[in-house]
Amino acid sequence: MNMLYEKYKNLKIDGSWIGLELGGGMPCFCTPIGAEIIGWDNGIHYCFIEGFGDMVFCVNPETCCDYFVYPIARNFCDFLGLILATGGTNTLQQIIWWDKKMFDDFVNCPEEQEYKARPEVKSVLDTIRKGMDVALIDTPFEYIKDLQSKFPCEQISFTNEYYDILGIECPNGIVPED
């Protein structure tokens, strides 16, 4: 069990303000085998996956890229540092399909700035800053792009339902049950 994640849960904050609501939903067709879901933002969820250590993944059932599941932090400490840098998970989960200009445009847009300035968001981020031993990640875009460029997404295991829904063959040769 990830001790830093347990410490985060014990803060008892309303993580919905930063896109990391505890509980909140059922796994979906693209939730990997061995996933421990650690937070939700509507249907998008974040998890650890058995066999990948403390790496944090995003599971996005309505993805805009080639992957439904992709890494966004090497560990939970970095994940919180990325959240502190960007104000929430919304920015983090979109980096996979953005270039640097799209990222900069989004984080600097008035709507995003207004949202991050809300007292509820500031309160959650301040609680994380004060209650956790976490360093802000100064270059979130570069950090995530580097991590994703080196990660072998094909090593993530999915249920037969995933392959059935996408209409693709299971890579391990197992024929899905009817």
User: How far apart are the termini?
Assistant: 36 Å
- The total domain count is 1
Question: Any idea what the shape is?
Answer: globular
C-alpha-based Rg, rounded: 16 Å
User: Strands across the major sheet, in which order?
Assistant: 1-2-3-4
Mean pLDDT: 90
Helix content: 40-55%
Kindly name the structural category.
alpha+beta
Q: Give the number of DSSP strands.
A: 4
Task: Provide a descriptive summary of the structure in words.
It is a single chain. With 178 residues, the chain is α+β, with helices and mostly antiparallel strands. It has one domain. The chain is built from eight helices and four strands; from the N terminus they run αββββααααααα. The protein has helices at residues 3-10, 76-86, 89-94, 100-108, 110-116, 119-131, 140-150, 160-166, and strands at 35-41, 44-49, 56-59, 69-73. A four-stranded antiparallel beta sheet has the order 1-2-3-4. Strand 2 and strand 3 form a beta hairpin. The radius of gyration is 16 Å and the shape is globular. The N and C termini lie far apart (36 Å).
